[in-house]
Specification:
Shape: globular
Radius of gyration: 15 Å
Number of helices: 0
Order of helices and strands: EEEEEEEEEEEEEE
Strand order of the largest sheet: 2-1-11-8-14-5
Structural class: mainly beta
CATH superfamily: Jelly Rolls
Helix content: under 10%
């Protein structure tokens, strides 16, 4: 299973990469990964015209779009549309103090409900 990952390099610049989540066991309810650590879950709804200008995250988190895609731009200029049902791991909280904010998010459709799962 492939997920998007937004991370910070040693210069404080953010980039995307794809991360493969290994699926290890198949049973009557499907194929699963190993248990990944998490400390909580947050549900959030945003309007279709939502724009969250350049910012970094306050915690490492998985974001899952429940009913609409949203567009994320890394500070290196790469833009990705994170589609409905897709997952991205946001890890841009350790940027240098002098660095510019690291990403910009917009909702390109009518309603977006990204969900953040905080991970250690």
């Amino acid at each position: 299973m492939r997920i998007h990952n937004l991370y910070v390099d040693e210069k404080g610049e953010t980039h995307f990469r794809d991360v493969e989540i290994e699926l290890i066991e198949t049973g009557p309810d499907g194929t699963i990964s190993k248990l990944l650590p998490a400390t909580g879950i947050i549900f959030r709804m945003t309007p279709g015209d939502w724009v969250f200008d350049w910012h970094s995250t306050t915690r490492r988190q998985y974001v899952v779009n429940l009913d609409a895609p949203h567009k994320v731009t890394a500070s290196d200029g790469e833009t990705r549309i994170i589609g409905t049902g897709e997952i991205y791991l946001v890890e841009d909280m350790h940027m240098r103090a002098a660095a510019l904010p690291t990403r910009r998010c917009t909702a390109p459709s009518s309603i977006s409900s990204p969900t953040g799962v905080e991970v250690p």
